[in-house]
Amino acid sequence: MISALPTLFDQHGAVDLDATKAAYEGLADTPLDGVFVAGTTGEFTTLSDEERLAVCAVAGAVFGPERTYWHVGAASTHQAGQLTAAAVDQGARRLAALTPYYFPATEAALLRYYDTVVARAAGIPVYGYVFAERTTTSVSPELLGRLAGTGLAGVKISGEGSAAVAAYLAALPHPQIEVYSGADLEFAEVVGIGATGVVSGVSSVLPAPFLEVRDALRADDPVALRVARERARRAVAATRHGNLAHLKAVLELRGVATSGLRAPLDGISPADRRALAADVADLL
């Protein structure tokens, strides 16, 4: 159970490291297995490299290096390599790298990209990140098998259902790398087909239902799992499937300072804010 963390900004749009730290400290005592920092939920495409590294460093200090996955993926091999080296220098012990984006990367370019990131990581585990819907770069199951040969420790697959995750699992060499889904609601399904778990954005503000799902799976308790999955479903629905404005509004309900968005999205309306407060009251 890995949570994908948001990044908080002040009223002028600058990264607010104090508020970000406060949000992370509110999660730190929960038994999350890890946190994914400066990814999609963290609005990484709106951050400078320096800001990304600073946010990741805050998470590392709060959660500890072994629970913190620094996202170093970039549009180019050059930038990803630089971010990787800088993250390692700053104490990162787990790294994740989205495929190159905007320009659809070729197979040869993807192999060079992950070869470079793994080499610059100097023995620190690197997790790939596949999200064709957002990056324009498609990775077939067969290609993921070849990318695993660059030395990846695992991969996060977003925007795909459990059937697609099963196809990726089947194409990986044995022993296979760790495989995570980005689908908050498919924890049970992906674990059932042999994946490691999920990386969940909604759990970064409403962790309890998702931890209940994890614990029910570990205990093999179908009754507890049914109850927990319904609570997780409600959390996802209330936040509009992890809409960034809704996630940050939940943080406000938890006492974290108000944060705007850098991503080009609308804020939450007063009516939606009131409905959200009612919907998540017993999930906080």
From TrEMBL:
NADP keyword on record? no
Database matches in PROSITE patterns: DHDPS_1
One MF term in the entry's GO annotations? 4-hydroxy-tetrahydrodipicolinate synthase activity
Tell me which UniProt keywords the record has, alphabetically.
Answer: Lyase, Schiff base
What InterPro entries has UniProt attached to this entry? Aldolase_TIM, DapA-like, Schiff_base-form_aldolases_CS
Return the CDD domains for the record. DHDPS-like
Concerning SMART domains, the annotation shows:
DHDPS
- Output the superkingdom of the source species: Bacteria
Task: Cite the binding residues for pyruvate.
Answer: 41, 199
Q: Which Pfam families match?
A: DHDPS
Q: Where is the active site?
A: 129 (proton donor/acceptor), 156 (schiff-base intermediate with substrate)
Record-stated family = Belongs to the DapA family.
Output this protein's name: Dihydrodipicolinate synthase family protein
